[in-house]
Structure prediction request, 558 residues.
Amino acid sequence: MEKLKKYASVKDEDQFYHQGAVELLVFNFLLILTILTIWLFKKHRFRFLHETGGAMVYGLVMGLLIRYATKASNVENGTVYECEKLESGPSTLLLNITNQVYEYQYKREISHHNINGHQGNAMLQKMTFDPSIFFNILLPPIIFHAGYSLKKRHFFRNLGSILTYAFLGTAISCIVIGLIMYGFVKAMVHIGQLKAWEFHFTDCLFFGSLMSATDPVTVLAIFHELHVDTDLYTLLFGESVLNDAVAIVLTYSISIYSPKENPNAFDAAAFFQSVGNFLGIFAGSFAMGSSYAVVTHLTKFTKLCEFPMLETGLFFLLSWSAFLSAEAAGLTGIVAVLFCGVTQAHYTYNNLSSDSRMRTKELFEFMNFLAENVIFCYMGLALFTFQNHIFNPLFIFGAFVAVFIARACNIYPLSFLLNLARKQKIPRNFQHMMMFSGLRGAIAFALAIRDTGSQPKQMMFTTALLIVFFTVWVFGGGTTPMLTWLQIRVGVDPDEDLKGQAASQSASKLDKNTTKAESAWLFRVWYAFDHRYPFLEQCTHCEDVAPRISLELILHIP
Prediction:
């Protein structure tokens, strides 16, 4: 009998590892299909469905098969047993079952309403990712690549507008979505679809903050392929990069906002505490990421460029350490790794050997591609493999209305205010394209899946997933026709475009005045900092270091 028990235990353990291999194999095949689809799309220049949309389609099909073609391997899996002697949930539990001791580890708390018929399906459970995988493994390379591949000259020229859209625009979107959703929640309470205590105003603001994270990866990929007007590309790319960081910190700040009395009432003390947390976390994360980038840059004094493999390895590990250190310190790793990438691109990249420059660019570009497609594949899977979806038609309809109204309240008023001060105005067709390009993607999904323990959070997750599907497929697929309809320039060379703008400014004898008006004060300070502290300048140990791009050229400072 003892041998039979041990044999059964070993068999269950082997089955567990086999299921893990099957899970990885599923994602491997999904990525292979995605890559082959991308090749076909590029070969036939098919732009009505982007690679991310295709990855979601494959994920949907696979999720459908897993959901309805697999079943629970053991009828006892998912069964709830009462344990009255335990007063709390221990991290490790030892169970004596017929003189055989088994060790179980805490995974998460499950509400009674979350227990369903699929609870014992091991395959579905395996396909439900731990949210920490998204934030600790998949998101960092995506965000770092965005900062590391930033086109500095165009970014700096439009910095004021980008910061306005990213900070003020995200706050506007969050508030507008929160207010509209609160109205819909009140209507749902009135008709009996929700209890008044289940959904508070802070929950609506939380949903607004996570849905304020734009991720126009589909649109930007098409922009890059068609060489769309550089100012439009920079505005949209810069907004999406910083907007992700702002939305993540804003979501955290709202989640810790806790009025002492009525959750739906305004509490000034709690509000200012949340604002202080937002500013402190953002500033601390910025400092952490920039500090690691400077430390990486100072390795130039070690002559590490003579060993490109070691140089690339150290660059990668220090960049990832920026993310992990910020998370360990209670800050936001995504913000830290973003500004680490921006600072690395400005200082460290120019001091790397030619081999390391090529390796780091290709490494992070590849990691970004792989992580992005894994996330979009998983989005498709999650529609069927996530076991606690709540589809509420009224909430979903309200969310679609709120997202589109919030995007309009963000783009058009802020563009009007920015045009009052900008020498080079943001034209109306640019504004329409930015309004159209407000897609939701990886960040909104990752923020929504981070907490799905309660019914309101499950409803938010389901709704966020549907909005991502709709915007990626419909708006992403309609990008090329919209560019044609709005008569936006394509086939533009970024460098020639920048030289042409500088020449026209010089010809009109407004170069100096325009420079002072349009050059961002933050980077004028950065320019002065570089000249005051020459130890950050280019290394002379290696002969093949890249020529440094001066901020004088970037900002046209005479």
